[in-house]
Amino acid sequence: MAGPDDESARRQQADLRSFGRRRGRKATARQRTLLDDLLPRVAIVPEQVAGLTANALPAAVFGTAVAEVWLEIGFGGGEHLLWQAHEHPDVGLIGCEPFEDGVVKVLSAMDGNGPKNIRLLADDVRPLLRALPAASLSRVFILFPDPWPKRRHAKRRLIDPAFVADLARVMRPGGQLRFATDIGDYARTALLSLNGNENFIWRAASPEDWRFRSEDWPGTRYEAKASREGRRSYYFRFCRR
After folding, report:
1. pLDDT digits (tens, 9 = 90+) for 125-146
2. Superfamily holding 27-240
3. In the chain, which end has fewer C-beta atoms inside a 10 angstrom radius, N or C?
4. Distance CA 89, CA 93 (A)
5. Which residues are CB-contacts of 131 (< 8 A; sequence separation ≥ 6)?
6. Does residue 20 have a pLDDT over 50?
7. How does pLDDT run across 211-238, given as a tens digit for each residue?
8. 160 a catalytic residue
């Protein structure tokens, strides 16, 4: 019989890449400095959190006892992540984004007098999710992940039953998961995965709840692009039981 370590190795080998390219334009000297000097000081890696308890996580990662820890998966240009960090200085935010250009944008905003309550993973989030302590996250944001619209690529979408199970493990009871997409089929399959997990409750009371975002949910450049191109966005809130 395979043990836990064997299962973990099997899952990591089975992970399909859920994101597109990692780099856009060649980094400028300033951007290279941010990546080489600042990123290591604000980085979080799976090995850093493996074996920690939920109570020990905030001080170990942020150097202080923040009130809660939130996670944004695929923060893109960082608009939402930076807004939340500014509005909630008592919260520690972990941002995961494999695309280097997005990481540089957030690092540039953090440099100098920028927010100090952000930690970054410039890589796939899934190994980090498996390393985080159980019941350690109060909010998770997954906003406009890579849609993989072609049928043959749909298996690369981030949200599937196994990923939802990983989210359920690391989220605290009463925690909130926010998901947004502008691809109707992705909305449908994500809802099937989330509603299929007994640990999550969809909080929608009417269609208005998934057609519009709330005031504490700022827009992003990708959302604006989808609107310009005539695509409707869908906004979902789930509560961890």
Report:
1. 999 999 999 999 999 999 999 9
2. Vaccinia Virus protein VP39 (3.40.50.150)
3. N
4. 9
5. 46, 47, 49, 50
6. no
7. 999 999 999 999 999 999 999 999 999 9
8. no
Dihedral sign for Cα 29, 42, 78, 185, please: positive
pLDDT at residue 25 greater than cutoff 80: no
Work out the average pLDDT over 68-89.
Answer: 98
Question: What average pLDDT does the chain have?
Answer: 91
Residue 24 confidence (pLDDT): 55
d(CA 109, CA 212): 28
List the structure tokens of 205.
């009371």
What residue spans define the domains of the chain? Answer: 27-240
Does the pLDDT at position 8 exceed 70?
no
Q: How far apart are CA 210 and CA 147, in angstroms?
A: 18
| CA 95 to the chain's CA centroid | 6
Q: Which of 15, 146, 160, 166 is catalytic?
A: 146
